[in-house]
Design goal:
- It comes from Exiguobacterium sp. (strain ATCC BAA-1283 / AT1b).
- The structure is a single chain.
- With about 280 residues, the protein is an alpha/beta fold.
- About 25% of the residues lie in helices and about 35% in strands.
- The protein is built from nine helices and twelve strands.
């Protein structure tokens, strides 16, 4: 007889659709000051971080999201030295940023210190670079950090949850305007912008708002199995550099599992129904 714990968790990605995992062990389950946090173990995807009942990252597929958030803007910018990550307390984006020798300092600002604490404990392969001397970790409000910054960063990456709870302000036009102010004159930013199957209106709104602020605004995609629909989008806003016009000489060798220079360009080739959301 199978003696495995038969505890199943379902993330309800819409009212009528969800994705279900068998959970073998619950490491942590608590209501933090900001959100419901669970750290669980699954057979299919390994250790998994859940926030407010949504899958944030897993051992098995985390590299897709983190590589595509970090490397697309960092290879687009010719000399990124000062980088900011808003959210991303699991440390995956920071890990990828540290692969770029030009980066002198990366600042991570996450509102929930428990995410950072438990990621270090249970997701060491993801959070391992949070103690790197080139990294400054701030437990605080990313929206307010942006508001207080001016002409400071070469690249800003918004690694947020979906636009609910503490992350709602990170999907507003005012926030994107603040990002523009916080960036240097040739700065670039990228934000995760959910999926085109269930949240097309969100993508349309973000594209419209970012286009009003950044002269170069584009959408790209990646496949993340544990995120709603598997197709995930990212919006990039750039003051000067076109992410589809990166010279071959700018790419340098880094260890990746998903991202490649060829994929960098291919990610901007969108299915027609997704391309229509950018118009």
């Amino acid at each position: 007889m199978d003696q495995k714990l038969k505890l199943w968790f379902t993330e309800h990605q819409t009212e009528d659709y969800g994705i279900t995992f068998r959970v073998n062990h619950v490491y942590e389950s608590e209501q933090t000051e900001f959100q419901r946090l669970e750290m669980v173990e699954t057979d299919e995807f390994g250790t998994m971080l859940l926030l407010d009942g949504m899958v944030m990252t897993t051992d098995k597929d985390e590299f897709v999201y983190h590589e595509m958030v970090a490397h697309v803007p960092l290879f687009t910018h010719p000399n990124p030295k000062h980088v900011l990550v808003v959210g991303g307390g699991d440390g995956g984006v920071i890990r990828e940023i540290m692969k770029h020798p030009s980066v002198e300092k990366a600042v991570l600002v996450d509102i929930d210190g428990k995410v950072i604490e438990y990621s270090k404990k249970y997701l060491p392969n993801i959070a391992g670079e949070l103690d790197n001397p080139r990294v400054e970790v701030i437990v605080g409000d990313g929206f307010m950090h942006i508001a207080k910054s001016e002409n400071e960063y070469d690249v800003i990456m918004v690694d947020s949850t979906e636009p609910v709870g503490p992350a709602a302000n990170l999907f507003t036009k005012g926030f994107y305007a603040g990002i523009s102010k916080a960036l240097k004159e040739d700065g670039i930013f990228v934000a995760q912008t959910d999926n085109p199957w269930f949240t097309p209106e969100l993508i349309q709104t973000v594209q419209r708002d970012v286009k009003e602020i950044f002269p170069i605004t584009k959408l790209y995609t990646a496949n993340v199995p544990t995120y709603p629909s598997g197709m995930w989008t990212f919006t990039i806003g750039s003051k000067k550099y076109d992410p589809e016009q990166v010279s071959a000489e700018r790419f340098h060798d880094i260890e990746t599992k998903y991202y490649t220079p060829k994929l960098h360009n291919a990610a901007f080739v969108l299915p027609k129904f997704v391309e229509d959301l950018t118009k």
